[in-house]
Amino acid sequence: MRPRKVVIVSRIFLPEPAAASFRLAALARGFAAEGADVTVLTTNPPRAMAAATVDEPYRIVRVPVLRDSEDYVRGVAQYLSFDVQAFARLLTMNADIVVSEPPPTTGLAVWLSSALRRRPYIWYNPDVWTSATLNMDVPSVVTQLMRVAETVSARRAGGVITVSESMGEELRRVTGVGRDKMFLAENGIDTDTFTADGPAEPWDGPYFVYAGSVSEWQGMDIFIEALARILPRHPGVTLHVLGRGSDLTRVQGVAARLAPDNVVFHGVQPPARTAAFLRGAVAALASVIPHTGYDFSKPTKLYAAAACGTPSIYAGVGAGARLVSENRLGTPVEFTPEAVADAMERALDDARSGEREGARERRRTWARENASLAASGRAAAAWVLSGFTRDAR
User: Fold this and answer.
1) Which among 189, 289, 301, 311 is least surrounded, fewest beta carbons within 10 Å?
2) Is the pLDDT of residue 216 over 90?
3) What letter would DSSP give residue 192?
4) Quick check: 277 and 201 in contact, CB under 8 A?
5) pLDDT at residue 360 tops 80
6) 153-185: b or e for each residue (b if 16 or more CB lie within 10 Å)?
7) Which residues are CB-contacts of 104 (< 8 A; sequence separation ≥ 6)?
8) How confident is the model at residue 388 (pLDDT cuts 50, 70, 90)?
């Protein structure tokens, strides 16, 4: 019999704008479309979004949690403030199956509560946290504990949803989880919000956009270094950073030193405004520091830009570079300020002369056909409800 009561557990959800929020909302809508009774167990939204409403075809249960100085649920204390409450709530919630979003500490809470309630759970794998910690300034014991938590979360799950072949392979390498229990639901973006149709951000002068997380393993300050190199020839160009992350303070320091008048930090923005920035941009920017354990990632920024018809400049190697190159979404370049600066200047020349006819429409069409979160959410929900699961206690 197909499971009918589904609980999705995540420390972040709508209206808080983040890749996880959009991805899980698409999954929840997919469950609802399949006729399941869906509940999302999540946190109270940040203060700035407390008044926002969420009109969705499922129930949302929220709990108060600790947030950091940026009003984000990040850090051991913040994670545990949610995980402890999630564990207690799950012990009393009726569900046929539970879906857990990282961090791995949440996975442990879901695994233990599911074992006690004798029901299966799904591990949603958008990132491999063990690999991410290798690029952070954390003690090695933290990485080892993360590996243990992530391994338990993945291997004890009835099934694993992964967002790319490369991500699934990295999870298999780190945790030993079998590929036979994985389902690939390609990463993507809300193609109803991120579209080439609509207003562009009213900003004077040409600009580039970096929209999304600013973490250590991304090294987005390479774009600030590149911008500083081209400013003598293009003094009116600006770089807009829409997002937050653990590396933001350091990156702001780099901007203050190299390009104080040409880098604008907006913080996290609603999806509609992010789309407006992307529509008007010369190019969108994305990066992953090469050969530090995260070459398998495909940043969501690339999908958002393509859906808006905007070309991307991607600094890095691996899956992200192949995504841009193979689908003609922009320009993959070496992770050096010189290479990025050259790409930015070429993008400025293209913007002045006008892109080849149909290029924006081609990127937008590709995104609609290959990067729709709605389609991925429906496919993943159908797989979960298909009765595939086995008891993995």
Assistant:
1) 289
2) no
3) T
4) yes
5) yes
6) bbbbbbbbbbbbebbbbbbbebbebeeebbbbb
7) 129, 146, 149, 150, 152, 153
8) low
Distance CA 230, CA 345 (A): 7
- Whose structure tokens read 């979003």? 101
Encoded amino acid at 151, one letter:
T
Letter string b/e over residues 286-298, b meaning 16 or more CB atoms within 10 A of that residue's CB: bbbbeeebbbbbb
Start-to-end C-alpha separation, the chain:
20
CB 104 within 8 A of CB 129: yes
Which residue type is seen at 232?
Answer: P
Cα(338)–Cα(342) distance, integer angstroms: 6
The widest CA-to-CA distance across the chain, in whole angstroms, is 67
Instruction: For residue 257, give both structure tokens.
Output: 């030193």
| Tally of helices (H runs) and strands (E runs) in the chain | 14, 13
Q: 209 has which bridge partners? A: 240, 284
**How many angstroms separate the CA atoms of 289 and 137, rounded?**
15
Residue among 65, 136, 134 nearest 106 (CA): 65
Q: Helix 104-117 to helix 140-155 angle, to the nearest 10 degrees?
A: 40
- Whether 389 has a pLDDT exceeding 70, the answer reads no
User: Is 131 in contact with 170 (CB distance < 8 Å)?
Assistant: yes
Place of tokens 């407390």: 50
How many CA atoms lie within 13 Å of 378's alpha carbon, on the beta-carbon side? 6
The residue assigned the tokens 């901007």 is 255
CA distance 145 to 348: 46
- Kindly tell me the sign of the dihedral angle through the C-alpha atoms of 303, 305, 309, 315: negative
Task: Give the count of beta carbons closer than 10 Å to the beta carbon of residue 47.
Answer: 9
User: Residue 173: in which H helix or E strand, if any?
Assistant: helix 165-175
